[in-house]
Specification:
With about 250 residues, this protein is mainly alpha-helical. The protein contains ten helices and four strands. The termini are far apart.
Length: about 250
């Protein structure tokens, strides 16, 4: 049982890294610039690893028809993506991706285009990729697999802890800015560009808040990195604070 869990974990890491590499290349080609993808600090996109392992556990050796794998894989990945989006939204009060501008989407969390790609990816994974991956895994001595899994797991836990702490710091800073805006602008806060400019001017009168805004809009800040990675990311409870940090006319 232990070695089976280790195998699943190593596959999770492998597919997470593969997803990170794929996204990094695709977005570099699309945007013509290199951007480090991924929610974590390390080169991982966990949703790919989670989806691959989930589909392997539920489908490998149970369904062989390519089209059946496509449709079942589509449903599984859509469910995983929807739940992941929902949990991240509730825990961090933020939307990391938004498919609202895509046709046939559900609450902006999943859409038809990504669903089709996920279904095709699962069918190819189960039919062709996973047998090869399993063969490679079995060639690694069990004791080496155990050590490798322990080391990677330890690094992953540290990465996750740092990421969560970073997000907590972001939310705390956004809350400070938002509270300052609410206290000082009261009913005057609205969504017009004029009011955003007015809020920005008001912030400059407070050295601490102004310094906080400047730090958060810095290209090296974690919030700025997330905004580059997820342009549609939105911390719903702190919309005005984000608009002051990243004015719309500067995002175009």
């Amino acid at each position: 049982m232990l070695i089976k869990i280790v195998n699943y974990f190593l596959w999770f890491i492998m597919y997470s890294v593969f997803g990170w590499i794929t996204e990094t290349i695709l977005f570099a080609v699309r945007d013509k610039k290199s951007v480090k993808r991924g929610f974590l600090f390390g080169p991982l996109c966990p949703i790919y690893g989670s989806g691959a392992v989930l589909c392997t556990i539920l489908l490998y050796g149970k369904i062989s028809n390519f089209f059946a794998l496509f449709f079942v894989g589509l449903l599984l990945c859509d469910t995983l993506e929807y739940i992941t989006h929902y949990v991240l939204e509730k825990v961090f009060h933020a939307m990391w991706w938004d498919y609202s501008n895509q046709r046939f989407n559900i609450k902006g969390r999943i859409c038809l285009t990504s669903s089709i790609l996920f279904g095709l990816g699962v069918a190819l994974l189960i039919k062709f990729v996973q047998p090869f991956v399993m063969n490679i895994t079995e060639r690694i001595p069990e004791d080496i697999r155990l050590i490798l899994a322990f080391v990677i797991y330890s690094i992953l836990i540290i990465d996750l802890a740092l990421t969560v702490q970073s997000l907590k710091n972001i939310i705390r800073s956004l809350k400070e800015i938002q509270n300052y805006l609410v206290e000082n602008m009261q009913d005057e806060i609205d969504k017009t560009d004029e009011k955003i400019d007015e809020m920005a001017d008001k912030i400059k009168s407070n050295a601490y808040i102004d310094n906080l805004v400047e730090k958060m809009k810095s290209g090296k800040s974690q919030l700025a990195r997330y905004k580059r990675l997820f342009p549609k990311m939105n911390f719903g409870n702190y919309k005005e604070a984000l608009e002051v940090i990243f004015p719309k006319n500067k995002n175009k």
